């Protein structure tokens, strides 16, 4: 099996999404033969041509006012240089987000990143964890899955974390970070299938 190269590009204002990005990185790095690069969005704009050599690019952004953060939007707008040339066509893509509430309209952020990836001809990977799979029966209680639960936000497009205004490192909670770790591992596994 050849080595695979995965880049994780994220924007985080308060550090919550950075912790998610680090969990995605660590999950991807746990896959044998993976080489993982973690870049904040501003640095990624400056180094955008380096990303041409990567097999997968995962996007991460905090959700503000029901949409992706301006820093991530700036990075995605910079990818127009890759659109016309098809440089990122058939690369694996994925995305994750964090907000201060369970919803916060995080779906809009993930959809925005997914649409950008589709514009670039990339292949999007969703979450592999079923909500609360590590807490059997949690779905049958009025409280639902707790903070240690996998995919407690019940996301399919990409991991969602909820921090509720709690400062890092106490948020995002363990279940949200484990979901991000699992996602990184899933991205690596699928990338390896497409790059034998």
Please characterize this protein's 3D structure.
- Residues 6-150 form the Flavodoxin-like domain.
- Its cofactor is FMN.
- InterPro entries: Flavodoxin/NO_synth, Flavodoxin_CS, Flavoprotein-like_sf, FMN_Rdtase-like_dom.
- GO terms for molecular function: electron transfer activity; FMN binding; NAD(P)H dehydrogenase (quinone) activity.
- The chain is of the alpha/beta class and 196 residues long.
- The protein has one domain (4-194): 3-Layer(aba) Sandwich (Rossmann fold).
- 35% of the residues lie in helices and 20% in strands.
- The protein is built from 6 helices and 7 strands.
- It has helices spanning 16-29, 41-46, 70-78, 80-83, 106-119, 174-194, and strands at 4-11, 34-40, 56-64, 67-68, 92-99, 123-124, 160-162.
- Helix 1 (16-29) packs across helix 6 (174-194).
- The longest helix is centred in the C-terminal third of the chain and has 21 residues, at 174-194.
- The chain is globular, with a radius of gyration of 16 Å.
């Amino acid at each position: 099996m050849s080595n695979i190269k995965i880049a994780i590009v994220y924007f985080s204002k308060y550090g919550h999404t950075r912790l998610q990005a680090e969990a995605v990185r660590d999950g991807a790095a746990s896959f044998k033969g993976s080489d993982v690069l973690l870049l904040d969005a501003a640095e990624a704009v400056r180094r955008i041509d380096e990303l041409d050599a990567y097999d997968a690019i995962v996007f991460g952004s905090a959700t503000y006012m029901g949409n992706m953060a301006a820093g991530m939007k700036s990075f995605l707008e910079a990818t127009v240089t890759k659109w016309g040339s098809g440089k990122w066509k058939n690369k694996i893509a994925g995305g994750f987000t964090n907000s201060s509430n369970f919803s916060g309209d995080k779906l809009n952020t993930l959809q925005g990143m997914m649409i950008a990836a589709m514009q670039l001809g990339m292949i999007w990977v969703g979450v592999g964890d079923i909500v609360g799979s590590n807490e059997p029966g949690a779905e049958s209680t009025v409280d639902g899955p707790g903070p240690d639960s996998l995919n407690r936000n019940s996301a399919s497009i990409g991991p969602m974390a909820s921090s509720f205004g709690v400062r890092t490192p106490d948020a995002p909670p363990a279940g949200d970070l484990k979901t991000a770790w699992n996602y990184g591992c899933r991205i690596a596994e699928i990338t390896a299938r497409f790059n034998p």
